[in-house]
Design a protein that fits this description.
99 residues, mainly alpha, 0% strand
Length: 99
């Protein structure tokens, strides 16, 4: 616990020094506005995906492949490997549906 508190103290002291000597403002000004907007949008979408997966509104591709393998008696390893390429997912899904 003391190590964690020391790390928080050191990061706070470092941030304070960076702010006092105006280094922080130079770093912020060096980043283009489009990149700032893109990073914030990416973080927001990432958090939205995590929330939707946790609430089971969406299911990850790997979980969907395992579910297909269990429900339709397919080969889970073949289905998992097919999940790496979206076009193969479509073909695998169509071939499972024909059985």
């Amino acid at each position: 616990m003391a190590t964690g508190l020391a790390a928080v103290f050191c990061s706070g002291a470092l941030f304070f020094l960076i702010s006092v000597f105006r280094i922080r403002q130079y770093v912020i000004d060096a980043i283009p506005q489009n990149l700032k907007l893109a990073v914030s949008a990416g973080v927001g979408l990432f958090l939205a995906i995590i929330a939707l997966e946790e609430s089971k509104v969406i299911v990850s591709a790997l979980a969907a492949c395992w579910a297909r393998a269990v429900l339709f008696g397919g080969n889970a390893t073949r289905t998992r490997m097919a999940a790496t390429i979206p076009s193969r997912i479509i073909r695998t899904t169509k071939s499972i549906g024909r059985r």
